Amino acid sequence: MGPASMIVLILAAVTFSVIAILLSRVVLKASWNPQKGQAYECGIKTTGQTWIQFNVGYYLFALIFLIFDVELIFLYPWAVVVRQVGWPALVEILIFFFILFIGFLYAHKKGALNWS
Amino acid sequence: MMKGETIVFYLLAALTLVSAAMSVGTRRIFRSAVFLLTSLIGIAGLYFWMRFEFAAAVQIVVYAGGIAVLIIFSVFLTQRAGDDMPSPPSLRTIAAAGAALLGMGLVMIQLVNHRFPTPAVAEVDRSVSAIGRRMLATGDDGFALPFEVVSLLLLAAMIGCIVIAMRTKPNQP
Amino acid sequence: MTTEALITVMAEVAPDAVVDTAGEWPNFQVSAEAWPDLARLIRHREDLRFDYLFCLTCVDWKTHLTMVYHLSSTAYRHTMVVKVKLDRETPVIQTVSDIWRTAEFHEREVFELFGVNFTGHPDLRKLILPDDWTGYPLRKDYEDPVNMIKL
Amino acid sequence: MVEEIGTTDKGELIINVGPQHPATHGVLHLVITLDGETVRKVEPHLGYIHRSIEKMSESLSYRQFIYATSRMDYLSAHINNHACAMAVEKGLQLEVPERAQVIRVLMGELTRIASHVLWWGAMAMDIGAFTPFFHAFREREMINDIMEESCGARLTMNYMVPGGVMYDIHPNFHRRVKEFIAQFKRKLPEYDELVTGNTIFRARTRGVGVLSKEDAISYGCSGPTGRASGVDCDIRKVQPYGIYDRLDFQQIIGTEGDTYSRYLVRMQEMRQSLHIIEQLIDNIPEGDFQAKTKAVLKVPKGEYYSRVETARGDFGVYLVSEGGLTPYRIKYRSPGFSNLSALDHTVRGQKIGDLVAIMGSFDLVIPDIDR
Amino acid sequence: MWNLAQLTDLIHRWLYETFPPAWALAFEMIIVGIAVIGLFAGLGLVLVLMERKVSAFMQIRLGPNRVGPKGLMQSLADTLKLLVKEGMTPDGVDRFLFNLAPFIAMIAAMLLMAPIAFAKDFQIWDLNIGVLYVTAISSLNVIAILMAGWSSNNKYSLLGAMRSGAQIVSYELSAGLSILTVVVLTGSLQISDIVTAQSNGWWIFKGHIPVLIAFVIYMIAVTAETNRAPFDMAEAESELTGGFHTEYSGMKFALFFLAEYINVFIVCAIGATLFLGGWMPLHIGEWSAFNGIMDWIPSSLWFFGKTFFLIFLMMWFRWTFPRLRIDQLLNLEWRYLLPIGMVNILLVTVIAILKWHF
Amino acid sequence: MMEPGLYHMLFIGAALFFIGIYGFLTRRNLITILMSFELILNSVCLNFIAFNRYVWTDKMDGLFFTVFIIAIAAAEAAVAIAIIIHLYRSHGSIDVNSAENLKH
Amino acid sequence: MFLTRYFSEIAEAVGSLLKGMRMTGYYFTHHKEIITQQYPDNRATLVLPERFRGEVVMTHTDNNEHRCTGCTACELACPNGTIKVVTKFEVNAEGKKKKAVDKFVYHLELCTMCNLCIEACPTDAIRMAQTFEHSVYDRSQLTRILNKPDSKLQEGVE
Amino acid sequence: MNPDKQPAKFPGLVHETPGGGILSGPLEDVVNWARSNSLWPLTFATSCCGIEMMSTAAAKYDFSRFGFEVARATPRQADVIIIAGTIVNKMAPVLKRLYDQMADPKYVIAMGACAISGGPFFYNTYSVVKGADHVIPVDVYVAGCPPRPEALLHALITLQEKIKSGGKRERIDIDGKNI
Ligand code: SF4
Ligand code: SF4
Ligand code: SF4
């Protein structure tokens, strides 16, 4: 099947999930009390708000990841044709990699990949 | 009866536009990011619909996989993401909406009046290997140079990010 | 250091202490005022070096409370017991948590179970009992008809 | 409880770990201040299993109060009972028959192995490996079977009575222990292969949660936790009780004071305990297993303190007697309580994952801490 | 009768002969939909049971053996129970996102089914960007997890979600690089091309050491991407109780659970396709006698055999190793896997250009 | 409804563009401004692809431009967010007003 | 050199991981190592050690006689009040009033299986049984009366 | 006073047993079969009995044979809470909250003397709850201190019987035979 399969798959996923989730609603009379709605935190009332501004140590990785992700995207068309094109492809990608590798080494040197 | 493809197009268009509108409209920053993401995925869907699979994949990989995560992280880092953002002054909202609508109207008028050249008959091969070949070609129609320049740009961006982001490190205890 | 030698040295550093050698280890009874200085002294003095406070507790004698400190030295392996008599109504004593850090928790425990107040303690809060607890359960006259069923 | 703040100015997050949390091995409640993934402060809140054993013991007779201590550090129930029995025996100046002494030590060392084995599995589980837990219980079950046969229960043995042990060892005891020794010797190298040598495990534990010797002494850390920091605090050596002064075994002292060295100390200790058992198992002297005692015990007025080395460290019983039928005051000095007080100091600046590993390496048993 | 392609053809023809084209198409879609859901649910059941049995045997115990014959009904009972268990939405969550997240996880998992070749000529959609499509769609997973974690209004969930965000995006790079090694050798992104390219031997044998390295990197990276131990930071039980799905219950949780297992299946299927030849039987060069014998075994068996072998490998990892710490996890990627992967791909390029591979 | 074609795509592109502009004008928060900016960029990409698809079908430049724009957008987003975080760290706010205050 | 160290590190790590995998792989393939006992199926063959303390029971002879004199020694010995001996006065053959047990109440829900009562009993009237299947839906079912109805004191037990 | 603090009613009538609903007949039997065979416990252990619970989970007794092995650390996903160990006054509100936060249907097993009645800590203690059923409703009690692993398995089977019979909170006699 062609692209139509995408729609079929999405519809299948949605129907499946909806049925699955709604079934318990239909079948079960659930009890409810205020405590049940509280956020679970090991049985202790949670203190303060969860949705707060707080320190994400990972964003530097996400930054660098983004750069590499783009690089990866360019590699796909390259990889497909590398056998047809031959040596020039290797040379071009060497240059490409080389430049990026400098960045990588720089990041490494600067300790951006040392997670703190 | 409408063709299946057409329905899909309108669905995608609606997804794109509605979530884009929600994205700029909602008061919750995290939802805003999620709506932006759905809008971008809708655009990827449109690319797909036009049979530009490669562009669609690039769109999803970079936006959904990368930029969205980055934006969400920065939201955590800088916002009380649970709080609603203050709504902008109504005057500003009205003015902005007016400007946007006006611009939209102008563009639409232009669009309707403009006649684009009829498409060339020959459809070019747009498979990934064709893209690859063009990308590595050094000739007139090749994109080898931009390709390498992009790597330089990425290098610059990476170094820039590191320099900027690392400089703030010592502030922390 | 042998027990005898220990007693001699202690007689030197704490002449007012009442010595009792009946038990396994020598017992020294000192006053609440003298205790903080003595504690610092025996912790740091070269030939004593009581660096290991392995037990800190309190006993309710119905008329008064007694703080009991079991001290030992990891260098010389001698052990002794220091006791401090406290008033039952307003028991106050200087903390030793700055000298032996393990005392921080032990003193918090004694605080809530016996009601002894440790002055200078960094964080004297309830540790074990619920926050809204009243009374000092390990005192002899503690009564709690709701929770405590007598056999 | 905690003040109503969820965050500090610096973007720190306050989060509760426990009382019901898989990593706290019971009902410890830690309030953690997090900066991203880094732990800035840990504040233990106790009392979620405070059963007032000390108060209860004041109204139990000298025969009865021993059973309550099995429920404190239930992983070294037998050794706890030993301390209580010894305190009473000190008061009564009872001479415990040689056979009883040997049985006590044998059981004690078996308990220690069982406890360490369980700790090993639980620590591996904290770090994220599930299989060791199950392998550990295989050996533990063997010990439990031995215990059950001789003492009548698997966990809270209640085998100790003032003056000796409750019954003589079971006729099968010899054979079973021999089997166990053989099996355990075979399996210990597997433990190393599965966990000790694993590079992920090493990376997770080496250099993590370092506790210096001075701090360890000041915080009153004892047992493997203290010894890993270089404190020689094994009561079996520094103040021998029972027949330990006549046994050949080593006190394992670590140097680094990190999580890995705490781990290694315990692993070595299992081997030492095995060595002790091997020495004793063929040399159980004949004789009584219980000294003659009166039906009703009255400990003379005085204060008695007995110390033993449980699997977690220096356990003490401070018994004050007024000469009556029941103790006047009992204080249990539990090793876990002091060890826990060092937790905050050790954890600061480490990651959440390390907190779990460090807690695992401290081998906390919460009822032992809360009593 | 082993040829699934004939079966599909038969149905296809029958449908178009009996009904008008529009209806036939609709019916076909419905059939495919039901088949996919069936496959989905079936895989979930089988994988959960397999995980339990594998873990049990490694842990010297028996595992489920009392529900149904030899415990085979165990995961059915679990599923049924989850179906009728309350799926609650706690107060204070962002209701919209909280309920949307499992759907996204499911849709992503479901969409990934499209390009997988289950057997010879049996594939839902042979996209021309095959593996790139897989990379793209699987990056949607991280969004589902971040959404779930954030909207739960629970600190554990939030921490878990952010960890997995960092982790998944990082390991995507390595996974992509190792996929690329095979693409370099094959010269196509299409799954069917990749499989046919291995008709004279699987890449893992033909491609020398670099492909082997790529395979190892791929396995590590996808283990991390699917959030499985030893990389299960997102749900690290001993640290964050349930991680991002702490607040989810009943079927909402089960959907995450299911999506996780389906993702495991898919990455293993892709791995099997790329490195082990997918449905292609074990062929050695031009030895037609040997190849003929191998062809006797139906292609779907080959495919599922290889996939389940890789899944078993992942389970083996899970039940053997301790969990990494989050910084070590990131270090592993950025210090080891990524540089090695980059060098590796250059090596493969040289091999491909020189035609050194078999 | 019409068969979708170039004009539909251009309409979507234009609408996205102005939604982006609206967001750009109303938002006071750097991150949301960045998000609006992404919308604008995407509208441009969409136009490129649409022209490539419906008008200059014999060329691939639209596709390439889109891919390069996405690449640049990624780089731009990375740097922008780095700057935003830096601003936040040093000034404690990423409101545009306070960012404007920086200038003087 | 940096590179050699880098690679030897990797090799070492991979080696240690493979070692662990060999271990689990061994157990995966050697099912004889499995030690699981299948409890409800092995009830017939399950033998518990005779010292195992499952619950306190009172021995009764075939003639429905027990040995409990009602001396309450066990009640006193029990650390947590699990046993309540309710006594009554019986007139025996010689016409003398004698203390005898009326109800021997045993709270299984409180019992810690510590064996102190058994040790204390002068007549060995009670003993520990090896039963352990004590699950009930209602906690009142756990309170038991150990002397069977109409049981008598065995002859000759004082 | 904190309303969480002292649970009011005794014993165990705080919540109705959920379940039932619109199902009836064979369908209900199927659902009950599924529920009874897929009891995911919450990892909840307070003291000594917890060790025996772990033993039950471990290789020798292996309660995964019944499908109980998927121990969940979060109450949202757990079906049964095995109260293994003493519940003290400070813990009671926590236990209550954990129970409340579990998704329906939920079951409770009180394991060991402490959870049933306070057990060894019934007399002369000031901090122990005299039975977990003062706090939350309990479905199955298993006596012992600690109950041996087989006893816990027996309790689980007993609970299964109860669920299969429709989960009514009535007394159902099971003898050893029908397990
Ligand atoms: S075994 Fe112990 S707790 Fe049980 S009745 Fe006898 S003395 Fe009491
Ligand atoms: S059982 Fe024994 S100790 Fe108890 S009342 Fe009867 S005779 Fe006395
Ligand atoms: S019943 Fe016994 S074993 Fe269980 S928790 Fe209570 S004291 Fe411990």
Account of the protein in words:
The complex is a heterooctamer. By secondary structure, chain B is mostly helical. Chain B has helices spanning 4-25, 29-49, 53-78, 90-113, 128-136, 144-167. Chain B folds into two domains: 1-83, NADH-ubiquinone/plastoquinone oxidoreductase chain 6, subunit NuoJ (Four Helix Bundle (Hemerythrin (Met), subunit A), Up-down Bundle); 126-166. Chain B has six helices and no strands. In chain B, helix 1 (4-25) runs antiparallel to helix 2 and helix 2 packs antiparallel against helix 3 (53-78). The longest helix of chain B is centred in the middle third of the chain and has 26 residues, at 53-78. Mean pLDDT of chain B is 77; it is low at 169-173. Chain C has 151 residues and is an alpha/beta fold. Chain C has a domain at 3-88: NADH:ubiquinone oxidoreductase Nqo5 subunit (Beta Polymerase, domain 2, 2-Layer Sandwich), CATH 3.30.460.80. The model of chain C has no long low-confidence stretch (mean pLDDT 81). Chain E has a two-stranded antiparallel ribbon with strand order 1-2. Chain E is globular and about 65 Å long. With 358 residues, chain E is mainly alpha-helical. In chain G, a hairpin with a 5-residue loop joins strand 3 and strand 4. Chain G has a three-stranded antiparallel beta sheet with strand order 3-4-6, with no helix packed on it. A two-stranded antiparallel sheet of chain G has the order 1-5. Chain G has a two-stranded parallel sheet with strand order 2-7. One iron/sulfur cluster binds at residues 56, 77-78, 80, 82-83, 111-117 of chain G.
For this entry, give a set of tags.
heterooctamer; D: 371 residues; three-stranded antiparallel β-sheet; globular; disordered N terminus; G: 158 residues; alpha+beta; Alpha-Beta Plaits; two-stranded antiparallel ribbon; 3 helices; 24% helix
